[in-house]
Amino acid sequence: MIDVSKGTVEKYALLFVVCGVVFAANYAQYQVSGLAHMVVSSLRLSSAEFSAVLFAPFIPAVVFGMPAGVCADRRGVKALVFFASAVSAAAAVARVACSSFATLFAASMLLGAAPCVINAIALKVLGPAFGDDTDRAMGWFYAAGSAGIACSLATSPLFAAAGQAYVLAAVLFAVFGLLWLLVAPSADAVRAASDGGAGDSVPMAGAFGTVAKMPMIWLVAVLLGVALASATAYSGYLVSALEVSIEPQTAGVLASFVTLGSIVGSVVGPYMRAQFKDYRAFMALSAVAGGVLMWAGEAFISTSSIGLMFAIGIASAVAGPVVQSLPYMLPGVRDGLAGSAGGVVSTVSLGLTFLIPVVLSCCIGESYETLLLGCAVLFGATALASPLLPSPDSLT
């Protein structure tokens, strides 16, 4: 049995595989964006159909995120993650044979099996292994997701055919799915040790019911969802807004620095938080800084610089790992309910990440600069929730 106790190499092997799964998930999802010229022309997709295919992998997380988290508390994580990785690998390959919007949408939706499960159980797996450093582990988890997007957008256009890119994504899922079988026994062992077997004795409905009665879980889920949605939508609208005044190639390069900044921000954020006596002050400051920088990116869109784009990426990502690690620190969640709490946070946050950009587009229309401003205001407004978060003394 592998020991994932603090100070061992094995817990970092566990972190590597968890990060690998989320890297593979984002790499596979955003291949469609990198291969847009091939996919749209070959299947004759409309802009609405293309958007639906791109965001289809979010659907399983919204629908099954909570059941996946509760199942992890009740039955463990070994079989759950491996099965989800296998489904995603099969879906990635199936995209090769897709000849219509309906089939590609279905395959893309099944592609979301692995990210659905890994987002729901990440806190449950990494929390017991890293303890008080859980936010730092979650920082690497976030960084891996951003790296998957960046690598996908950079490498997908290099393939001569979309099918070759899809096969590579399937290989990534298969590799990390098999590696998971090596580290999963340690994850279930540390789960049992940390909750004393409580997860096995609590009925699935009871586990969700207990978590659902915790207001802080819902607050964290909504706070994370609004922050992720505004940052994600900002990145999505940025290229189109930049292309109004500068060359498309230059716009793409500038926008890529937001993603690079988010990778750095995800990793350094927890270390920055450690410099504050009260993490809530860090949360408020990072939200305001992110909102102001995002506004600056919109206000000076015609003269945007690499430095500004990089700073926006950092500021919009530093608080994410800290927020997502909070549920594990709440009294009662560590005792066999981390998976259920992670499922709630995953479902609500990813659901908002999908819905908020749609609502913004419907309300504001085609004005990309106004859409960027709306994202900046939303992100900055999350600072208002900081005083409502639990005090450091109340966390375990």
Automatic annotation (TrEMBL):
Keyword field: Membrane, Transmembrane, Transmembrane helix
Molecular-function annotations in GO: transmembrane transporter activity
Membrane-traversing stretches: 12-30, 50-72, 103-127, 139-159, 165-184, 217-239, 251-269, 281-301, 307-330, 337-359, 371-389
Organism the protein comes from: Collinsella aerofaciens
Highest classification ranks of the organism: Bacteria, Bacillati, Actinomycetota, Coriobacteriia, Coriobacteriales
Entry annotated with the keyword Transmembrane: yes
Keyword Cytoplasm part of the UniProt annotation: no
Pfam families: MFS_1
Classification via InterPro entries: MFS, MFS_trans_sf
Protein name from the UniProt record: MFS transporter
